[in-house]
Amino acid sequence: MTFPEQTEPSEKPKTGFTAETGESSGLGFCGWILTALSFILFLATLPLSLFICIKVVQEYERAVIFRLGRLLHSGSKGPGIFFILPCIENYTKVDLRTLTFDVPPQEVLTKDSVTVSVDAVVYYRVHNATVSVANVENAHHSTRLLAQTTLRNMLGTHDLHQILADREHISNSMQSVLDECTDAWGIKVERVEIKDVRLPVQLQRAMAAEAEAAREARAKVIAAEGEQKASRALKEAADVISQSPAALQLRYLQTLNTISAEKNSTIIFPLPIDFLSEFLHRKNN
Description:
alpha+beta, Tetrahydropterin Synthase, Chain A, 3 domains, 3-stranded antiparallel sheet, 48% helix, disordered N terminus, membrane, Band-7_stomatin-like, transmembrane
């Protein structure tokens, strides 16, 4: 009794092991005998053996089958129903969905000798189930350890201001390095994000004081520039008014109007200066 087997053409063994040309090739005489006995046992125990030999994997899963310790040439199988021989075959399910894990906070000494605590999150998935099982003992655990080491190594080559300002560039570089290293494990690193950069308390206070001093300096510069522009404007206005005595009187009347509109008060209105100067001129003559 046989069942159709679904395989993934893209999931072929790459490195770390050699695929056999046939499912039973290389088993030897004992292997052939055990395979035959296993098939006879399956037929003798029908239909109960169907509950043991027929397996199902989901759409997002693949099954990597080993026969007498050897990987089958077809690689991984699934999704759907597949068949295994009793006693001589075993399989491992591999989840192909995107997984995430948090990189624990790492104490990193930056290039400018500042100790910071940095944590990150990594998004990855298994893109080759066969390789992830045959080439590494635990692909997920190995990826986590590699992410921690890569995070410390990469941040150690950057200054503090680069880590704070260029998070996206550092994340992309880390993703490229991880993806290149984990390709031999059948792992595809899709994205890396630096979550938080925690600075020592003393350094935070020093940076806050520096930022406050910089803001105060900018405020003083802006105020000085405003005073300079105001002085130039007053000088230009004085030059214009000095050329026309009538303009000075109009400005004087406008100022009195503004004062009287703000408060209900009595205003002593002196005689115009030009009127008094005319009498003084006649007296001198």
